[in-house]
Write a structure and sequence with these properties.
The chain is an alpha/beta fold. 54% of the residues lie in helices and 6% in strands. The strands form 3 sheets. The chain has a 4-stranded parallel sheet.
Length: 557
């Protein structure tokens, strides 16, 4: 019985435990089931989501103002972009070559209707580009300066005339003489100061004092000569200004190929004797430390002549047509503003100093300028060994070969002689100037004055210090190099009179077509050089090489 009682008790406990577990499971099921009765929840019920718009935003004053502002901005945006979105066709604007662009700019056709476009176009037409306005301002400034200078000269001339009108006889002649000589001294002094300033070689006070002393000494000599009488007892009157230079050539032009010593020769003549170049001039450069003595307006105008005929200083110069250049000027196909500036100087009949005009392009364009000048100029022609010129060009211009440089040497020298055939000429060489600069330059000056009847310069003798400042044998690198090579090189051809053509260093392989062409053009140039040396090339019936029909062995690759 005791065992039976224990077992019964254990059975009852198990039964209650199972019943309790079953009840707990059933209660969990009812709590998780959506179908449970509402009156028996065992967990708190979640609130329902809002269903009205007012639950998200409250319509107060700030909210209304914000919505109105947003709507206004949106409508304004639509109104501004409406012309652009109303059209769909596309126009292509041309390439802006001035800015160097290589792409076409695409823009909607509705750009034509953007507000303010017409005002922008009118302003652009009125103002022009920045470059055009700068050029116009510069031209106006130049014109104003020239007009003021002319007015000042006119007032001075009027004042002198009034003063002279009250005088008579010897007193009047003395006043004229004093006025003219003083004007020449001041003009010469100011001209030298300006030239030295532009070249960066401003003279010191000692140099100016010396120059002023020389001018006063010349003045004393002129006065002493005028005070002396002739056999008839009449007073000698010193001729000054245009009266003394009547029927004389107003100046001369220096002709010669680039890199042929024309700058050095021009510098010696200008600084040594006082020939006048005017200005502004091209400033000294790394390849020409002493200066070029070339007027900028003449160089630019020659480039304008060349560009109109699809050529430049280093290409197609053989085809230059002087008649076409004049026609281009008359018909307005080229800009002649720079030429007008140059002619105001070259055709100035009030000048008392002879001018010197130098630009290697003049070898080609001389016939054009002769038709624009009022008075016939004289010519100073100089040349240099063709191989030295070609080597110098090759070092300065990476795109120029020896063959190219030799061909240019032939064309420039040939055209210089042909175009100046009917003018009074003085011949020189770079070699002669280097060997005896004082004697050679003095000979050129004397021959210009005595033979070609050019107005005499203010100085009759060239100072030695001017010669020393320009002649520097160390700058003749190509000449030394050529002479050193000729000591060991073989002779290609003997032209007689001690003039020979020798082998030279070439970048092409011997026997190649390029080397053969280079050698042929070199021998052609040497023939002309030797004829310059013996004088045959200056004869009227000299036969120049026919470069137009010359057949090159092969094209340069």
């Amino acid at each position: 019985n005791g065992i039976v009682g224990i077992n019964n008790t254990h059975h009852i406990n198990n039964t209650m435990s199972n019943s309790s577990g079953s009840s707990s499971t059933q209660s969990h099921y009812h709590a998780a089931s959506p179908y449970r009765s509402n009156n028996r929840p065992n967990k708190q019920q979640q609130p329902r989501p809002p269903t009205n718009f007012t639950s998200y935003m409250k319509f107060n004053t700030i909210t209304i103002y914000t919505l109105l502002l947003f709507t206004s901005c949106y409508l304004l945006l639509l109104f501004c972009t409406l012309p652009m979105i109303s059209y769909s066709n596309i126009d292509t604007l041309p390439t802006d070559d001035d800015m160097g662009s290589t792409q076409h700019i695409h823009q909607g056709a509705s750009f034509q209707r953007i507000r303010g476009r017409h005002q922008y176009q009118r302003m652009k037409e009125q103002l022009g580009t920045l470059k055009e306005r700068a050029v116009q301002w510069e031209e106006r400034a130049k014109l104003t300066a020239r007009q003021e200078a002319m007015e000042l000269q006119e007032r001075e001339r009027t004042l002198v005339d009034k003063t002279l009108g009250k005088l008579s006889g010897t007193r009047r002649e003395d006043v004229m003489k004093v006025s003219q000589l003083l004007e020449e001294v001041v003009e010469e002094f100011e001209g030298e100061v300006e030239e030295h300033y532009e070249a960066g070689l401003m003279a010191n006070n000692k140099g100016h004092d010396e120059h002023w002393s020389q001018a006063l000494e010349a003045w004393d000599q002129a006065v002493a000569g005028s005070e002396g009488g002739n056999d008839d007892g009449e007073t000698n009157v010193v001729q000054t200004g245009n009266d003394a230079n009547e029927n004389k050539r107003p100046g001369f032009i220096v002709l010669g190929m680039h890199r042929s010593g024309t700058s050095m020769l021009s510098g010696l003549l200008v600084e040594g004797f006082g020939y006048e170049t005017g200005g502004p001039l091209i400033m000294p450069n790394f390849d020409n430390e002493k200066g070029f003595y070339e007027r900028i307006d003449v160089v630019l105008q020659n480039d304008e002549f060349f560009a109109a005929q699809h050529m430049g200083w280093s290409y197609n110069v053989l085809n230059y047509d002087s008649e076409k250049a004049i026609l281009d000027k008359l018909q307005g196909r080229i800009n002649f503003d720079e030429g007008k500036s140059a002619l105001k100087f070259l055709n100035n009949h009030q000048k008392t100093l002879p001018y010197l005009q130098k630009d290697p392009r003049m070898c080609i364009a001389l016939p054009t300028w002769l038709k624009l000048l009022d008075d016939e100029p004289a010519i100073v022609f100089t040349y240099r060994h063709p191989l030295e010129v070609a080597m110098s060009l090759k070092k300065r211009e990476s795109s120029i070969t020896l063959e190219h440089g030799l061909r240019l040497w032939i064309v420039y020298n040939m055209r210089a002689i042909q175009n100046s055939a009917r003018l009074c000429r003085v011949f020189s060489t770079n070699e002669a100037v280097m060997k005896n600069p004082t004697g050679e330059v003095q000979r050129i000056k004397n021959q210009l004055t005595d033979t070609c009847n050019v107005m005499p310069p203010p100085k009759s003798l060239i100072p030695q210090k001017v010669v020393d400042s320009f002649i520097d044998p160390n700058l003749q690198h190509n000449s030394k190099e050529r002479k050193n090579e000729e000591k060991t090189s073989k002779i290609l051809k003997d032209f007689g009179d001690g003039c020979v053509a020798r082998e030279f260093d070439s970048e092409y392989e011997r026997g190649s077509s390029n080397h053969e062409a280079e050698e042929q053009i070199f021998l052609m140039a040497m023939q002309i050089f030797c004829d310059f040396e013996n004088g045959k090339a200056y004869e009227a019936d000299y036969e120049w090489p026919d470069l137009v029909h010359w057949q090159r062995p092969a094209r340069i690759t």
